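As noted in the main text, all predictions were made from sequence alone. Below is one such record, for TetR family transcriptional regulator.
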Amino acid sequence: MTGQRTNARSPTTGKPRAARLSVDRVLEAAFARVRSTGLPSLTMRQLADDLGTGPMTLYRHVSGRDDLLRRMLDRTVAEMDLPPVSLDPREELTGLVTAVHARFRRDPWVVTLVASEGLSSPDILPVVERMLNALKNAGCNHDEMAAAYALIWHYTYGEAIDSHRDGELDRVAAGMGDIDVGEYPTLAEMLCRRRGTQRRHLFEGNLQRLLDSVL
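Prediction:
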């Protein structure tokens, strides 16, 4: 035997004890927790329990929950697969918004975090600058840029959250049971046509409709 302690367990939790804790390991455990049980379940005590250590040990790597969340936001932004810069405003905005949306779909809790706790990452600033430049190159003045920028982000946030659920029309239908075709013919037809439609295609099409307006 070599004396390795990789399978040692915490005497208090019975869970595997980490031989060496690091910021990366703390972040990995935090991402695993929010992806499986949601953002409200992420507490320093629960995270310490997941890692087989005590809460005070975590404070050697992160200063607190807000610091942990900011680091998670930084990593989320860093993992966005951003496209090369395009001089065509529509192509530039389409590429950027699609990349952001893809990352948000993987971790929709990020949208909730930004909206409810007011946290943000400075690493998103290059994306913001590129979006504003694209709108400026499209001929928008400052007021139009501000309005269009807000509209694009609101759509991206909302779609990222909604895409992890059934969608508003489907929730309406689920709450009503069988749709009375005679009373709600348009709704019934829409739901019938939506069967098998991929949400990704809905996002892409609606994004272009949005850009038709703001550009």
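The radius of gyration is 22 Å. DSSP finds eleven helices and no strands in the chain. These features were considered when defining construct boundaries for the mutagenesis experiments described in Section 2.9.
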